[in-house]
């Protein structure tokens, strides 16, 4: 995925937004996010700029009732600058060294998405349609979701399907062989059930499936071949299937007036990547309409079957990638959010620190990728209901 697309998902996840249920009031939200990656350490840098991505994002959202429906509109604007990992080459002692691109020019992205939900047949159904554009990337996406509550049982069923058609037109082509234009398509399915265990506890389990086909290679990355003493454009399979199973537990503690959130997610795809994600959060209600929410998240993944820091020779299948996102690694992140309610107005913000390292991985990592990310992300939120 493009770095900005990944940040968009992170940014929108930081908002506590209404789900499918219809609302009797108009809600407006604004979220500002400043994302800053730590520069590549000198001991890992094999060339190019050490300065990594800095991204500023603005998200505007409005949700309003309209007749028997609820309509929503999201508008996101991002600006991004910095260098990205290009390829990895062996150092004098064989240690992988990350070669970076030069500091990129300013890039911008605009994303707009609309949604419509309506109560139907004892539940709620929603449809959405969106469009995203940036310097070298356009995407059209849509989806349908539903939620059905069985009044005679403590179970709420949910599910959905989403589709995206992406067009890639690489820029900055000097010195690297790249495609002129290509496409990829993605389909996502999910289904789940939320169960009320008692008056203070709710559990949810869900399963998901993703199918991607088309151009899945990153046109801005290369792989180093020692037999050629040179780097060539990377190559990935033109299809990818993935499966997820996730569980969530929400429990309210009456005495401290707080809630504990526990989330777990297992992921596996046919590129042989397996990952585990575990997140723990504490939501504490404080006097004077304050809320404090610290959280801790752990992540670990295995590597893609065709990944290597660099290659001594060509693989028989022709695939090659040294992208750190396909490497084995683990990560820890800690986040603290604070929220203050003043009548219909809510003000809040948060800070998150993230570090990826082989030491956090579930299994032993033979060689750590030198391009792993470390970042700080600051958010400020303003919400008003009327």
Query: Which secondary-structure class do the elements indicate?
Result: mainly beta
Give the averaged pLDDT, no decimals: 90
Element pattern in H and E: HEEEEEEEEEEEEEEEEEEEEE
Low-confidence stretches: 1-23
Distance between the termini: 37 Å
User: Strand share of the residues?
Assistant: over 45%
In the sheet with the most strands, the strands line up as 1-3-4-7-8-9-10-11-12-15-16-17-18-19-20-21
Q: What is the overall silhouette?
A: globular
The count of DSSP E runs of length 2 or more, i.e. the number of strands, is 21
Radius of gyration: 22 Å
The biggest sheet amounts to:
16 strands, antiparallel, barrel
Specify the number of helices.
1
Protein model, in words:
- The chain is 3% helix and 62% strand.
- It is built from one helix and 21 strands.
- Strands 1-3-4-7-8-9-10-11-12-15-16-17-18-19-20-21 form a 16-stranded antiparallel barrel. The chain has a three-stranded mixed beta sheet with strand order 2-6-5, with no helix packed on it. A two-stranded antiparallel sheet has the order 13-14.
- The longest helix has 11 residues, at 3-13.
- The model is unreliable at 1-23 (pLDDT under 50).
- The chain has 386 residues and is mainly beta.
- The radius of gyration is 22 Å and the shape is globular.
